[in-house]
Structures are given as structure tokens and as C-alpha cells.
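INTERNAL AUDIT FORM
Audit reference: QA-55
Scope: verify that the stored structure record matches its stored sequence.
Auditor: D.O.
Record contents follow.
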Amino acid sequence: MSRETFRRTLRGKGPVSLKDSSTRKREGEILHIAKSPVVTMAPTTPIHDAIKIMANEGFRRIPIADPGTKKLAGIVTATDIIDYLGGGKKFEIIQQKFAGNIFKAINEPIKIVMTQKVFHVNTTAKIGEAIQLMKEQNVGGLPVVDSENRVRAIITERDIARMFAERLSGVKVSELMTKNVVTALITTTIFETERTMIMQGFRRLPIISDSKVVGIITAMDILRFFGSGEVFKNLQSGTITQVLNTPALKIAARDVVTVSPEMDVGQAAKVMDEKNLGALPVVENTKLIGIITERDFFKIIE
């Protein structure tokens, strides 16, 4: 079934549209679903402090703002930090500047790993504009700023999925899920997981054994791992090798919530909301056949 065909099957009325919502687009409506007040960090915040804040609060992204003016200066995501801690190009900073000394590296200010070009929306933006920008730029969240570029809130794909959970129906999970799932094995290390996440552009990897899901590792799991007291003490020795060679399964979620390909996407959205999850592996006859994420819901939201 083509994307356009199954869109028309959605309640027989086409894609879920904000125009049909009882909450009409109006100035300032984005602040009704965006998180406010928003936690921000200064550009000078040490990376290890940023890791702890994100891990303890469960934030996948935090805007970076001037502590005095609150003006938006950048954004840091779990992916940026994973990139720095071994996943990708930013890891070269640790190798070249600090000769692999991770303890020195994580005491650097967050500004060296943050993304400076921040996609954001204004407080007067319509929700549909935020959705469109997330889809176009493939980002999971947007800071919301006022006319003076001061950070007022943040809107994420989870906020939007929660908003539409009651209205997403008539489409099966199998029609939105990603079928070619990038996975990890029970022997995959944290370093290999980080590299795969950065190279493939995923924030989570199901861990499989004999085609069965035995765990799922997320970017936030890795952040919590690095932010834990035990690992932090190990990092004081100055070496990252032992830490990065830890099996990913050791820190992965083992009690994995899965869904069937026949489940309605509205029900899947409710499961994600109730369990506070960003994705659900799709299983048929105990075999992994796909994965559905919050971002997949955007395919039928306009």
C-alpha cells in the first residue's frame, strides 16, 4: 500500500491534520504543549556535569543559553555526547587534544560538543510549523524562543506523539515501522554501539540473539552509564578503553516492550506514552521484523 493510499484510509478522512483539531492554531498555542520552564545549560558547563544532568533528568536534549540573557547559543543532545565519547568525529577531539585521556576531556566545557546551528521555533509559531521543521531537518526537538531569542520552552517529538495518541488510528504498525532494523548482538560493546548509532543515525538498537530480542540499548542508557558514580571513578584513571569495551547488553533494558505488526498505531502511541518509551520493536512469532518510533507517527500527521 502506498503512503498516500494508507493515509486516505485513516478514519476514511486522510492524514491526521491539525486543521481538524479542536485546538485551532492560534498565536502562542505551541506553549500549550511545549515543556516550560525549560532546563538550559551555560556554554561553560563541564561535559561531565551535562552528562549527569541529562542522565538524572532523562533529557535527550538541552538548549545551551547565555546564563545572563537566556539567549539561545546552541543545543546538546545525547547523540552529540555519544559522538564525543567514542561514536564519531567528535571523538577525535579526545584523541588529538587529550591523547585519549577521557577524564580531562569530560571536564571541557559543553560548547566544544554542542550543535551551534540550532533549529528552533518562535513562541508565536503554530504546532504544524514545528512538526514540519522537525520532519524537514530530521530532529527530535526544537527550542522555543521569544522575539529576543530567549529560550522559553522546548517541544519534542514525544510531546507531539502524546498530543496525537488519541487521534492516530486506522493504520497498522506494519505500515509505519522501519523494516530494515539495525541491531546489536549480545557481544557488541558500548564502543561498537556508539559507532553504529552515530554512523547509522539511530538513538536505539535492539539487541538480538537467534533473531529474538533480548534487550534494547538507547543513547540515554549510555549517558546514564557514563554518568554513574562507578564509571566516573574509573574514568579518573584517565583511560577509556576498559569502559568502552563493556558489553552493551550489561546496561541495556532487558524487559523489552514489543508490539505486533497488526497493532493499531494509536494503541502503539498509547503504549509508548504509558511506558515512557521512544520506540517499540515489532515482533512476529518471536522474531524481530521491524521497529516503530515516535518519529514514525509524523508520517501521518500534517
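Auditor finding: record pair retrieved intact. The longest helix spans residues 47-57.
Action required: none
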